[in-house]
Amino acid sequence: MSFARLLSRLFFSGTPSGSPPLIEQSKYDSNCVFCDVSVQNGFDVLWEDEKLIAFRDQIPASKYHIQVIPKEHIRSIRQLRKSDVQMLKDMVKLAHQLLDELAIAGPTRKMGFHIPPFNSINHLHLHVQALPYKTLAKKAKYPVANGFKSYIKGFSWFVEAKQAISILQDDRTVGVFPC
Ligand SMILES: [Zn+2]
Ligand SMILES: [Zn+2]
């Protein structure tokens, strides 16, 4: 059971049906598989603390493919603002720790986010990959578009974690178009 659900059971068990408590609406989505990541639910969990959880992708696109997600239900990278930069930095730090444990060389590390509507699951997830990709079709799902002029990122449905951090730090938001 997720922490958010446990909390809601403990504190809101008497809530009349039809009006779910605010805490549950904002932090937990009962229809979201990534809100219920656990070993019991069949995930290959590598690491977790009270805020983040990391697990192996069930259909790896590359030699190693891990997901790092916040336990809190956040829809996507589009929703993030400057105040979320620290969370992204924590996710990246954890990702590097996990890749360190796998002895993955720096240049083959890649990490980033899909940008809606080009995402699969509506719960923020950092793709953490050790290249190479298994196929060209898989590679095409994770294109990196370098910035130009004042843009940090070009046109792309994928944003590298470091690009996302720079964009948010600059008080902008992440989108498919150059930003
Ligand atoms: Zn979720
Ligand atoms: Zn994705």
From TrEMBL:
Positions of the HIT domain: 33-138
InterPro entries, A to Z = HIT-like (IPR011146), HIT-like_sf (IPR036265)
Keyword Nucleotide-binding listed? The answer is yes
Does this entry carry the keyword Hydrolase?
yes
> Which PANTHER family does its entry note?
ADENOSINE 5'-MONOPHOSPHORAMIDASE HINT3, APRATAXIN-RELATED
Source domain of life is Eukaryota
Put simply, this protein is called HIT-like protein
Q: Which Pfam families does the record associate with it?
A: DcpS_C (PF11969)
A GO molecular function for this record?
Answer: hydrolase activity
Annotated motif Histidine triad motif, positions: 123-127
Assigned keywords, A-Z: Hydrolase, Nucleotide-binding
Provide the species name: Gymnopus androsaceus JB14
